[in-house]
């Protein structure tokens, strides 16, 4: 859909703002036909106009507006991320070509060197380029974080979500040798799963609580392997967000917790009161003499034990000292 058509729909939207059915029809048309780009949104300000209906008294309109705005933001962010990744790939390729030039020069001076070890014409070896990129090491003389790595973590222009992405990036990047774009992608995906589980608009407190659990586990000195597993892809963002917090604990802590659980279970079983069945007592209700009992010291030590009885026939209970 071109800008002129979008502007025409916006005009109709403003003129029909009191007619819920017309508003819904226009919003559905915008959702279906608009392909969001930064240029289109900036020129038409369609996002601003659509967002005005978020306070509508009609819940169907509110729901549709939120869906449209969220979809457009995701599309713009994906476009930005793709552009950054292409730029990083171009820089990597340029760096690879520079290395290839020196390698070619060295090979020319020594005709006995094996050409199979040289990179191919596109700057990569016969190995899959994505695998090489993942294995490449990123080194920095400064402490790694979003600022020092030159990474833009403003993705959604929503303060809380962008702050979470930045915090996750800083935590995952510290002491890591993965390239910035790889870590940023993981931070974005983790936050996206968090927002999918607990939408920041409607469940902000749950969203924050989930973030605290994940972040505290990532930065824990007692669990250094966790962020390595996350950045290596051994733990997926979906699992990280949806699993029980105990599953993120280090193996040593898991083992200790299991030992404590088994010990508590044993102690609980050991403390179970033993009951004896006898015919010495008669049930006052059904007059049967099949009675189980146990004794406890419920008063001072110089007082006799209290006997608790249960009729095994009718279930009647009584006690005496």
TrEMBL record:
Q: Does the keyword rRNA processing apply?
A: no
Q: What is this protein called?
A: Transcription elongation factor
Q: Which GO terms describe its molecular function?
A: RNA polymerase II complex recruiting activity; RNA polymerase II transcription regulatory region sequence-specific DNA binding; translation elongation factor activity; zinc ion binding
Q: Where in the cell is it found?
A: Nucleus
To which protein family does this belong? Belongs to the TFS-II family.
The UniProt regions of compositional bias labelled Polar residues, in chain numbering, are: 95-104, 114-128
In terms of domain of life, where is this protein from?
Answer: Eukaryota
Q: Please state every residue range assigned to the domain named TFIIS central.
A: 160-276
Which InterPro entries does the entry link to?
Answer: TF_IIS-typ, TFIIS/CRSP70_N_sub, TFIIS/LEDGF_dom_sf, TFIIS_cen_dom, TFIIS_cen_dom_sf, TFIIS_N, TFSII, Znf_TFIIS
Query: Could you tell me which residues belong to the region Disordered?
Result: 83-145
Domain TFIIS-type positions: 279-319
